[in-house]
Model the fold of this input.
Amino acid sequence: MHRVVAKSQLSPNVTRLVIEAARIAEIRRPGQFVIVRLDEGAERLPLTIADADPSAGTISLIIQAVGKSTIDLVELGVGDAIRDVAGPLGRPTDLIESGHAVCVGGGVGTAVVYPIAQELQRRGVAVTSVIGGRSAEWVILEAELATVGEVVTCTDDGSYGRPGFVTQALADLCAAGGIDAVYAVGPVPMMRAVAELTRPFGIPTTVSLNAIMVDGTGMCGGCRVVVDGETRYACVDGPEFDGHTVDFGVLADRLTTYRQFEQEALERRGPCLIPGLVRAAAVSAAPTASAGHEVPA
Done:
């Protein structure tokens, strides 16, 4: 059992849980994830390890509540426990050793770029983080990212930071030059737009396909993607890939596979104990050009 030792709300439907997982905390690396199972018979959920404290024996999981299983998780309180946490899994992020990197996070994707930015800064790489959300309340981890480099914050409605999308801020940085690598995590349309934006500049661009993972072992085949014309599995070959070689059309189709089943499970679950959370989750799950990104033509 893995006890919850701290809990905080980062945005209307994003929660941070700090849980006991001493062995994982010691060896995890940026880009890796864990498989979480709340209880016997519960769904297996792949979640990125957003942070770790080896001295305390804890890891941080940042969870976007969009369906039954994620809502069940964020309803946990301090002192409650998660039955199973397996990991770390997946390939660690391939990181540059010097120069200037830009980490782009859209919505909850910011939780995935945070450990990447931490490790880049530890290596001596100059880090600029570009993060976004629909409005001020949807922006997460700004203060944490500010401890490892410069932060450019964007909101779609202009309620905070720079008005507009993260791709617009990234375009300005690319035009200025001096970028050695881009790491982008967020909704699929955002990552696709980032990859197309950096392509003509020849900037190596890494994207995370963790959103389509199911069992995390490669056995179910639910996370099949096409990368450089070949089939790959996000959970064992990734979850991160060269954004310039990912077939984002196939990826977008794959994301809709279980949508009907997820909606039916959410309806069977009944009311959520956290006021307003189900509505926020429904807004977040809806197809949109928000969360700090734009859908390319």
Notes: The chain has a mean pLDDT of 86. Residues 110-122 form the longest helix (13 residues). The domain at 100-255 is CATH 3.40.50.80 (Rossmann fold). The chain is about 30% helix and 30% strand.
